[in-house]
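User: Could you go from structure to sequence for me? I need the amino acid at each position, not a summary. Structure tokens:
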């Protein structure tokens, strides 16, 4: 048997949002500081624990709105760059209220249109158009209203 001395970690997980996505929000322990928000964005499920963390993520999405009007209203080909069905990978990452965060407008490349890149800890969002930003931002705003 081999005894390894190495380690593994998740460096980043990327969520690409194209167009208006269906959203669903469930909350456990609503109205308390221990609230757990489960946010379904299309086929991506996020769990955010604690009111402070939910408010932190919502604030970062609000800040990213600075770049919103520089995005296309909708990406012409929403399947461009999409993953093949059945190739989903689950990732668990803790995002606390002190997770480093940034948002940038990324210029168009040969493979991707201009988009907003939002990074909160190890989670990276690629927001490809205004419809994607608006639907995802609305979900975070709603989640923020559910916690104290």
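Assistant: Here is the amino acid at each position, in order:
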């Amino acid at each position: 048997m081999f005894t390894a001395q190495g380690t593994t970690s998740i460096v980043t997980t990327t969520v690409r949002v194209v167009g208006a996505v269906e959203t669903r929000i469930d909350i456990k322990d609503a109205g308390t500081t221990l609230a757990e928000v489960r946010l379904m964005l299309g086929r991506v499920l996020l769990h955010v624990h604690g009111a402070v963390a939910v408010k932190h993520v919502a604030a970062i999405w609000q800040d990213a709105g600075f770049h919103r009007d520089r995005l296309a209203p909708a990406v012409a080909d929403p399947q461009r760059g999409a993953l093949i069905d059945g190739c989903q990978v689950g990732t668990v990452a803790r995002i606390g209220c002190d997770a480093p965060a940034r948002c940038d407008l990324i210029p168009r490349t040969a493979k991707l249109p201009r988009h907003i890149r939002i990074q909160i800890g190890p989670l990276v969002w690629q927001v490809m158009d205004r419809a994607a930003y608006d639907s995802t931002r609305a979900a975070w705003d709603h989640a923020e209203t559910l916690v104290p």
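One structural detail worth keeping in mind: The chain has one domain: 20-145.
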